Amino acid sequence: MNKRLYNKIHRRISKQIKIGSVKIGGNAPIVVQSMTNTDTRDVMSTIRQIKELEQYGCELIRVAVPDMEAAHALQKIKKGIRIPLVADIHFDYRLALASLESGVDGFRLNPGNIGDREQIKQVVLAAKERAVPIRIGLNAGSLPKLTGANKPVAQRMVAAALEQVQLLESLDFDLIKVSLKAFDVPTTVTAYQAIAVKIPYPLHIGITEAGTPRTGIIRSSVGIGALLYLGIGDTIRVSLTADPREEVIAGYEILKSLNLRQHGPVLVSCPTCGRTEVDLVKLALQVETALQKIDKPVKVAVMGCVVNGPGEAADADVGIACGKGKGVIFRNGKKIRVVEEEDFFEALMTEVGNYVE
Ligand code: SF4
Predict the structure, then answer these.
(1) What is the 308 CA–ligand 1 centroid distance (Å)?
(2) Which residues line ligand 1 (CB under 6 A)?
(3) pLDDT tens-digit profile of 213-258?
(4) pLDDT digits over 55-99, tens only?
(5) What's the CA angle centered on 36, arms 258 and 222, to 5 degrees?
(6) pLDDT at 1 exceeding the cut of 80
(7) Average pLDDT of the residues of the chain
């Protein structure tokens, strides 16, 4: 892959922490995470969903902990999964303490609603005893009430996060990760840019409540993509009103778009135009579906004519440049055969199969 010379992104180097076995920050790969949407108290359904997400490449999973029954269920869930488990805590610090007892690998606290300093202190000391990292997870929609009511939201998020960071540091705790999410992309980017130069800790990035897949993936890609391009972000979640598998797929596509991770195939396909003389849309969709079954990194190009076709197809690991009734198959930049239109799909996928083997 990447036969041409491409520009590289220079990442902000943060202090590395470990959530379970997964490294976050420093020079570790940017981690893709998601959140279950099952009832956490339904242990079997939650484990089933997490296992499905693991298969899609989810590396860290967060679950909601709305009550004590859910906090206790985490113990069984933890035993049934392989990836690290993070508890999402709102409103009641005792849920954080119970989640720690259940053996979670990390948890997220929302300082806007978790309680007073004394309660947070109890949680921090318990986390310190077990070396369990805490994410200070700010959301624009639930900022602490006293944080500069007249200031812009991004500034208020940063101020609230810094206050919590200082509280944790004053308790000699530094297994910290921070997130500052808003629905508004410029607000989110501004907030992360500001905090990135103020603290050494890893940052979890995302656009909160981004919406349904059609618009939410675009909004998330713009926000997360802008931050990653600035070198900011150690772990990502694409928040979608959808099956969480969509979040994981979208997360990897964002990282692959910026050459920050390799994960399964990459499909290059031309947009078609008046020069296209074959049903390229159908062919590209067929290839896309077939590539979903492959988990190895391979760059495949499906091109509609001889203008950009040979160049892109040759730059890919395997490619086809289609002309009227015939197409040229490329592998590792070399033309290897000419095929008839009815054989385009079979011939291309045979070469892809040979390549990944
Ligand atoms: Fe048109 Fe050819 Fe470009 Fe495809 S590769 S959009 S067919 S010019």
Answers:
(1) 6
(2) 270-273, 275-276, 303-305, 307-309
(3) 999 999 999 999 999 999 999 999 999 999 999 999 999 999 999 9
(4) 999 999 999 999 999 999 999 999 999 999 999 998 899 999 999
(5) 25
(6) no
(7) 93
d(CA 178, CA 162): 9
Q: Taking the model in full, what pTM does it have? A: 0.93
Q: CA 88, 94, 98: angle at the middle one, nearest 5?
A: 70
- Token pair 């296992």 is at which residue? 51
User: Whose CA is closest to atom 1 on ligand 1?
Assistant: 273
- Using the atom order of ligand 1, give the atom closest to the CA of residue 303: 5
- What's the confidence (pLDDT) of residue 228? 98
Measured distance CA(14)–CA(17) in Å, rounded: 9
List C-alpha distances in Å: 138 to 81, 161, 179, 206, 272.
27, 7, 6, 11, 43
- The 10 Å Cβ neighbour count of residue 337 is 12
CA 318 to ligand 1 centroid distance, Å: 18
Q: Which domains does the chain have, with CATH numbers?
A: 11-257 (3.20.20.20), 266-356 (3.30.413.10)
Confidence (pLDDT) at 152? 92
Question: What is the CA(323)–ligand 1 centre distance, in A?
Answer: 10
Instruction: Give me ligand 1 centre to Cα 266, in Å.
Output: 19
